[in-house]
Amino acid sequence: MNILIKSATIIDPKSDFHNTIQDILIEKGQITKIDSSIKNPKNYQEIILENLHISQGWFDSSVSFGEPGFEERETIKNGLKTAASSGFTAVAVNANTNPVIDTNSDIAFLKSKAQNHAVTLLPIGALTISSKGTDMAELFDMGTAGAVAFYDYHKPISNPNLMKIALQYASNFNGLVCSFPQENKIAGHGVMNEHITSTKLGLKGIPALAEELQVARDLFLLEYTGGKLHIATISTAKSVELIREAKSKKLDVTCSVAVHNLYFTDEALGDFNTHFKVLPPLRTQTDVDALIEAVKDGTIDMVTTDHNPIDVEQKKVEFDRADYGTIGLESAFGALQNCFTTKKTIDILTRGKSRFGLENTPINVGNTANMTLFNPDAKSKFTRDRIISKSKNAIFENETLKGIVYGIVANNQLVLNP
Annotated catalytic sites, by residue? Predict the structure, then answer.
């Protein structure tokens, strides 16, 4: 791939050209020249786009596709296409498939399905066999095959001794153990946040306590065992406080938050729209404010789309019976820009890579080209006809979002949106 990108504003604090407008010459997937004006004697394809900005390629730490087993929700091929069109050059893919990704051959399958694609697929192996929470899966073998972390997606480990052993065992090979922060016995049959809105709607609530007890337990276990822990998708102000305290103790813990938990509150469920049924549930404005502040100060290490396609048969039902989950890749950039400045949004979308074994590739001469192309100022309504995902369960449907993605340059490929 040989291209010449014209008049692009570079947003990359690690680049020598941060905050400047430059031409960028890319030959065979490598940045060979950056200058204010570059001629094109070899007649390479020129990329000229309105208000073009570029940054390092974006990363998402929690994406679900469905294949194998739930191809009606999403396939790996279309999922990676969706990720590319949304500006992501790498995605960590969860193990919530059928069968569950819990062996080295399963990891090899995912990697083989993603070969030769512009987007890098990072497989997450299940922490326990079949994600049943009973017996630890083959963590070392999966790590050897390419698993970047171990996580039973949306399934908390109820047995504290199992979590203790997993942290101890994975530390032998620097493995990253992930935990879903919910104590199911407290959550019970709740379907949304336990608060005033749940009482008004007559829906059973999930108390913030259900999350905070699990976070506190896991942090105590981490302090005892050592190892590396990632707490996925926290949603309460108290969880932020607990993790902030743990970091002050120098514990090796990171955490993420789903972008919709930064944007909506539980009041959005007023009309029983099942698109808003997510896990962890949407919380209160107090929680949202604390989460946003924690993203800004770095207590929350990364923001994820928590992209989870659900087919219409599991969503277009009574609220109590609907599955949890929303797609989020395609709306993430615009939603974040409604909450943060452009520079902060790009920081959010590019951090967290090293935790999952990815290297940052600054936009400098000599480096491999791994970048996202976007216009931060354009506004548009996120409508159903714009959704590339096979499933259409979009929590941001009909929201006015700020910024559009033009495409990506990664793995010696150029992907541009029509």
Answer: 306
